[in-house]
Each structure stands twice: as C-alpha cells, then as structure tokens.
Amino acid sequence: MATGTPLRVLIVEDSAEDAELLIEELRRGGYDPVFERVDSSAAMVVALNKQTWDMIFSDYTMPNFMGTEALARVRERELDMPFIFVSGTIGEETAVEAMKAGAQDYVMKANLQRLLPVVERQLHEAAVRRQRKREEETVAYLAYHDPLTDLPNRNVFFDRLQQAVLTSYREKKPLAVLLMDLNRFKQVNDAFGHQCGDLLLRQIGPRLRRHLRESDTIARMGGDEFAILLLNTPMEGASLTARKILKALEAPFVLKEATVEIGVSIGIAFYPDHGEESDVLFRRADMAMYMTKQAGGGYTIYAPEHEESAPRRLMLTGQLRRAIEYGGLALHYQPQISLKTNRVIGVEALARWSHPQLGQIPPDEFIPLAEQTGLIRSLTQWALKTVCHQREVWKEAGVTLPISVNLSATNLQEMQLPDQVAELVRTGRVPAGLLEFEVTESMIMVNPMRAMQVLTRLNTIGIPLAIDDFGTGYSSLGYLKKMPVQKIKIDKSFIIDGLEDKGKGNGNGVIVQSIINLAHSLDLEVVAEGVEDQSTMDRLAAFGCDAAQGYHIGYPLPAGELTAWLRESHREM
Ligand code: C2E
Ligand code: CA
Ligand code: CA
User: Is residue 492 in contact with ligand 1, taking CB distance under 6 Å?
Assistant: First the structure.
C-alpha cells in the first residue's frame, strides 16, 4: 500500500460528516491525515496541549463555539501553524475579518476542491516561517554565546562584570576577575591541526565548571583566552580557586589520537582593591596575566608594580607615535571578490608596522595599543590620507577600486571624522563610492546614539558602511535594522575551519547560512572573510553569499604587488 504524506490535523467542527468530507479530500490529495475533531473551547485546549499539529481547520459558526474563538486559542499560545476556516456560511466580509484576525485562508464547504491547493501553499509557507525562526534563533544565540565552546562570549562577560561591580558596590562585597590564557595552545594547533585545538578549547569549560559556583561566570574571550568572574569572593578565595583551576587543567587532554598537556597563565584583580570600575579591573587582571606568562605559568595577583614593569608597552607607544608621524606604517590591501561574477569588487586596507628592531608587529598588538593611548585618531587620519593618495596612484594606472578602511570605537565618538571625509569628497580627493568603512558592533555599542549620528552622517555623504566581525558581537539584528549599514562581514572564525556540518546541529554551515539569509532579508550585502580554500568558497556561493575575502583569493599585499595581482588574476572589475 502506498503511504501518503503524513499530516496531523486538528478539526474544529460540530459535524462529524463535514469533518469526514474534509479528511476524504485530503486523502484524495495524497495525504495521510491523522486527525482529531473538537467542538468546544475546552476540548480544543486539551488537543493543543497534547501534541503538535501541522494544520488546523475550523468551522466558522458552531452551536457552542465560534471559529474566531478557536483562532484566538491558537494565537494566544503563539502557535503559528496554519489556521484555515472551512465554512458553509462565511460571507466575503466575514472572510476578510477572519483573515485580519490571523487566519491564513478560508475555504467554502461547497467549494471543497479549493482545499488541496490551499493546504499545499500553507504547508510551504509554514515551512518557510519555521526556517526563518530557526535562523533568527541561531543568530540571536550568537549574541550571547561563543558557538565553539557554548560558553558566554566576551560581551556577556563585560555586561556581567559591570553589573557585578554595581552590586558589589551596593552590598560592599568583594569580587574577583580571573583572566586565563593557555600556554601551549599554538603548539597544539600547529602540531595536531585546528580541529584538535577546537576539541581542546571545548574541554576547558566543563573542567573549570566543577570548581566554580553556579553564580560564577566562565566566558571565552576569543582565541585561547578565558575569563572568570567570581562573585562575592575575597583574595584568599580567589587564590584557592586559581590553584584548583591550575590543577584541573594540569591533567592531560585527550584529543582524538593525541594526548597533550598544556599549562595556563592566570592573572587576578579584585574589586575594590585594584579598581572600582569594570574596565580598570579587567585591564589589571590582563596585566597580571602578562606577568604570569613572563614567568612561564601559574597565577599572579595584580600589584601596582606591574604597571612600571610594562616597558615594552611604554616603549612601543612612543615608537608607534613616531611611526605614524614619520611614515613607519604602511597599508596593505586585500582583495574582495564577488561570488556571482568572480570579479574584484574592492579591497580592504590593513595597517602594517615594520619595526626597525622588532620586525613586523601584528595589528592585533599595535591597534589595541593605539586605541588605549588615543593614538588611534592620528592612525585613522593617516590611513585616510594614505588611501586617498593610493586612489590617485591607481587612478593614474587605470585601476578603479573601492577601498575600505577599518575604524575604531574612538572614531565613532566625534564628528571630526565625517567632517573630514566630507571635505575629502568635496575636494574630489576620493569619490564617495570609492571609500567604505568597517566598524564592529561592539564599537557601536560603546555609545550607540553617538555612533548612530556619525554613521548616519557618513552615509549621507555617500559612504557605504559594513559591520565587521559579524557573529562575534551583539549580533542584534533588531539594532542592525536601525543602523545605516549596507553590508555585513561574517567573522572569519566561522569560515576558516570550513562549512561542513559534521552532524552537529549548530555547526558553522548552519550559522553562516542563517546569517546570510537574515542579512538578505534586511537588504544587506554579505561578505565572508577568512576564506582559505576552494570548497569553502563553493559552499558560500551555494549559500547565496555575495562576496568573499581570504587567503585563498589573495593575501593582503603592498599596493604595487596588489596592482600586479589584479592584472594577473584577470579579476579586475
Ligand atoms: P579585520 O578588520 O577583521 O581584518 C581582517 C584580518 O583577517 C586581517 O588581519 C587579515 O590579514 C586577516 N585575514 C584575511 N584573510 C584571512 C584568511 O583567509 N585567513 C586568516 N586566518 N586570516 C585572514 P590583520 O591584517 O592582522 O588585522 C587584524 C585586525 O587589526 C583587523 O581585523 C582590524 O581589526 C585591525 N586593523 C588593521 N588595520 C587597521 C586600521 O588601519 N585601523 C583600525 N582601526 N584597525 C585596523
Ligand atoms: Ca575589517
Ligand atoms: Ca573582520
């Protein structure tokens, strides 16, 4: 016997014959309906609680129940399964009312041949709604979690720390911030590969959890860095916890075939002894952690002497200032290509610092330094000037390419930047369409009102804006809707390891696909960064991603080499 498509239907109907006719029609259409008939509010509630229904059919007028009431029972439960009126009496006006009240469709009993097409369409639409809901949940999840370890992410940590400081102040209770870095993580990654590194990171949380209270927070801050917030904990308690953690992480980790031992470095700072504000506390825990690392592992409690013994920082700050002023920095340019046309659609400008004695200093080191010391303003100025100059050089050479520049939180706090950009555009040093900015959500969240003004102003000048590192920040799509942005860049951590979902529900593939779909529903363009191989590029194209950037396409290159790359790659726009 051929079986039809299973369909669970709830029928709100006082006439058993009418219900039977409906079921007959469904069977005729190839469905295999499992159904229940109810004709009172109470029976309906029982049925709704009992199981999930694919679809509800309801008569409009019944002796002791109204169809509109049935509809209300469903919607008050926020169930969004299709609800279809099937009635002999419904007039056009009532039908319109019913649809307004939230019914998906209506069918006349006298015209039952309309039923099957209606059912088919409604099932399809319900599937689309479910899919959209799943996507929204996936992206909302990213706002609070690190998807790899399932731990709270850095934003959650900072929020909780800020809250905790306020509570501790009110209740006059101490608290401790522990910052922790794995000592040999890079070696593990290099020796056994990314996947083993990921396995290792996933085991950290569960091992720590056993030694902490329910109210303590463990968060992954990024890379191999974790942070722990101990509420209502004085110095002795925190030292004890630090020793337990060290011991817990001393035991070998089993990663597929390999067994590795890693050490950790912990830095600790207390409220109120070491700071009364969350960012001060965090920075001091970081400083203490740096001291621990120098010592090769263990834990260190912050002490004021640590401030003086940060000579590299001090020295670098002075040298960075001079490098910005005297041309010690350079911009490299990394191509972005369209996944539809395979052509280059623009380049991202990335700062490089080649230090005369220390060699290449990575931007992840000097950009935060510039941000903390206020040098970021002049660095951004310099980047803009350099980009304008480069644009002119490229124009001479017949190359027209939009260039995107990274901004920092500080840049979003003042109107100076949009004013300056307006001037550059007005004087024709750079046409508006050839300059683009990238900002992260956390930069916006530092002062959302202010950032909104600056970004709106930039947009009015005609400068497109992209949200950088999407998925690691607040990922608040609600917010994004209100922001004057045109593009999002999916953070490379979702892309680098590939997009295969190895049986895991919330793998990178699902996450990336969800981000792309939702961004498109908001009319945002999507760029994936960190594309390191062809199979990832193919999947991104299949997902409908608009553009890609990454080592597989091209490394960030000095301007001259990028020009050559453009010519050779035949991808000029
Ligand atoms: P970002 O804006 O997310 O830039 C992308 C980073 O990913 C760059 O690192 C780039 O070299 C790297 N990348 C590109 N493709 C791949 C890939 O396929 N695989 C991997 N593993 N990495 C890839 P970079 O150049 O080290 O820059 C680091 C960060 O420093 C940037 O991250 C950005 O936040 C910041 N930065 C760089 N230049 C500037 C600047 O001029 N101003 C500001 N405010 N920040 C900058
Ligand atoms: Ca960027
Ligand atoms: Ca990025």
Answer: yes
